[in-house]
Amino acid sequence: MTLKGSINASKFIAFATALTAGACYVIFRFKDRRNRERRGATSPATKLLYKYKQQLTLTPSQITKLDSELQGQIRAGLKAEITTNGLHMLMLPTCVSQIPNGEETGDIYAIDVGGTNFRVKYVRLSAEKSKIESEENFEAPIPKDVMTGTGSALFDFIATRTLNFIMAHEGGQSLEPPLVGFCFSFAIKQLSFNRGILLDWTKGFTCSDVIGHDPVQLLHEAFERAGRQCRVMALLNDTVGVLSAHRYLDQNTCVGIIIGTGTNAAYVEKIGSVKKWSAGPDVDPNAHTIINTEWGAFDSSSLPRCEEDWEVDAATIHKGKYLFEKLLSGMYIGDVARRILLRMARDPSCILFGSKASSDPLIPVALTTKEGFPTSALAKVVEDPGMRPETMARILGVATMSVEACDVVSQVCHLVAERSAQLIALALCAILRHTGWVQNPEGPLTVAFDGGMYEQFAAYRTMIRKAVDEFLGASLGAKITLELVHDGSCVGAAVLAAAATLEHQN
User: Fold this and answer.
1) Which of 33-42, 91-100, 325-334, 462-471 has the lowest mean pLDDT?
2) Most buried among 84, 95, 287, 326, by the most CB within 10 A?
3) Cα separations (Å) of 351 from 234, 355, 358?
């Protein structure tokens, strides 16, 4: 054997040894949990954990009731206007009468507002079908005082940074007014393809003098104040953007889902089924449009909840609203897990952290504030089912942790994440039943996903896939492809703006 071969063999042996050791540790943790359950099935920590499992795990009865209620709200929302109270799916028409088909072309700028960051993107859609020729991006965080200040301050922030990006991209030349697609990810009552009325704020935004007004008009006014006009050709939200972006590439795409800071879904619907929207006498009722469900506002007494969910809701700006979103989106689920663990840590009978010799329970630093245990921390725990106590201790800000405590934290995080994934899958399946695809699956179907939780949380993607297959059955589930769309809201805004420009020219 050569020296090089010997080194490679040594590396392989070391890798295999490490892999085996890791697998053995996971098996040890699993067996240790089983042994502890046999020895102390009635221990305080086990009792509390069992209680949360009962509360957060969907039962067959809940699944049936929720599926029926989701479909009921879908039908009701398509038939008539729904009061914007944050407790019902709004089923908002988008006024899209031409679904993207991959033939859209042009140079478009896209603006995306709706989370913690503001984004603007340049997109060149090629004359070649379903091909993006070039892209360029700018992203910046939206300051908290802008999110909660005046509407004019928010739109000045958007317009100034958009024009700075456009001027830099144009090389300082003053060209024709740029074409813009505006992704504004809040509940909008669409008046036309590029006009609408903001119905309500979510995701921590509370800007004054915007609800009841047209975001496109406010943006045009801000562009004027900044010294240059742009042509806003399309107004949409992020889920409509995600669906449109992937539909541009794949004509089987019928649903777009966002699961990040917040959550929402859009889907392809027959125009004739949208009774509350008059598309015009020349529009074929069998043609298709896109519906923005605003499913984050769904609520039902059948939803799996625990006391900590109500505590999270009480601490939000929009108390009592958007309760479905608060059970499953990235802004909230880390805090739900944190509050569950904090309750267990404060229970003197559990002794979850610290020594049994101490009369006072140890409270990990990370559990004392919302920022101490964000959803990203929950994701780290779930992604590593065999996480070693020393690693878990660093996440929670304690010196040491027992294997048992580590296992409890892992199970709590997994419970909260799996509930989120199951509710996403359940709502998706309800949409597919409503459209008739489940009853008559004529061909394959693609669901486009975007958002930090789906993109960055691999175990969560697996949970959603598993839940879809369980709810629909493996054979039907196999016909559904779940696809991650990178930057879908911006690309979708560009695609719809290009489609609107083409329709306007025709």
Assistant:
1) 33-42
2) 326
3) 57, 7, 9
State pLDDT tens for residues 464-473.
Answer: 999 999 999 9
Rounded to whole angstroms, the Cα distance separating 417 from 292 reads: 25
Phi, psi torsion values for 296, nearest 5 degrees: -60, -20
Distance CA 321, CA 343 (A): 24
Retrieve residue 478's tokens. 């196999």
Q: Which pairs with CB-CB distance under 8 Å and at least 24 residues apart come from 345-349?
A: 347/44, 347/48, 349/44
- The answer to whether the Cα torsion of 453, 325, 265, 203 is positive or negative is negative
Q: Which residues contact 70 (CB under 8 A, 6 or more apart)?
A: 89, 295, 298, 426, 427, 430, 431
Nearest in space to 334 (alpha carbons), one of 310, 309, 370:
370
Q: If pLDDT is split at 50, 70 and 90, which confidence band does 3 have? A: very low
Q: What is the reported pTM?
A: 0.86
Measured CA to CA, the distance from residue 252 to residue 445 in angstroms comes to 5
Q: Which of 38-52, 206-220, 337-351, 424-438 has the lowest mean pLDDT?
A: 38-52
Highest averaged pLDDT of the listed ranges 5-14, 34-43, 84-93, 258-267:
258-267
Q: Specify the residue for token string 């409890």.
A: 408
Instruction: List residues bridging with 447 in a β-sheet.
Output: 255, 482
d(CA 145, CA 412): 34
Query: Can you tell me the mean pLDDT for 420-441?
Result: 98
Helix (H) or strand (E) holding 141: strand 132-141
- Structure token pair of residue 422: 């199951």
DSSP 150: B
* φ/ψ of residue 377, rounded to 5: -70, -40
Q: Is residue 11 pLDDT above 80, yes or no?
A: no
Contact assessment for residue 156 and residue 478, using Cβ atoms and an 8 Å cutoff: no
2, pLDDT greater than 60 = no
Which helix (DSSP H) or strand (DSSP E) does residue 255 occupy? strand 253-259
Structure tokens at 17: 């040894």
Q: What is the DSSP code string of 194-210?
A: TEEEEEE--TT---BT-
Beta-carbon contacts of 353 under 8 Å, excluding residues fewer than 6 positions away, are 345, 361, 362, 363, 364, 396, 398, 401, 405
Going from the C-alpha of 341 to that of each of 136, 337, 338, the distances in angstroms are 43, 6, 5
Residue 411, classed as helix, strand or coil, is helix
In this predicted structure, which of 37-51, 77-91, 190-204, 217-231 has the lowest mean pLDDT? 37-51
Phi–psi pair at 135, nearest 5 degrees: -145, 155
pLDDT tops 60 at residue 1: no
Dihedral sign for Cα atoms in the order 146, 152, 154, 160: negative
For the sheet with 445-450, list strands across it: 92-93, 288-292, 263-270, 253-259, 445-450, 480-484
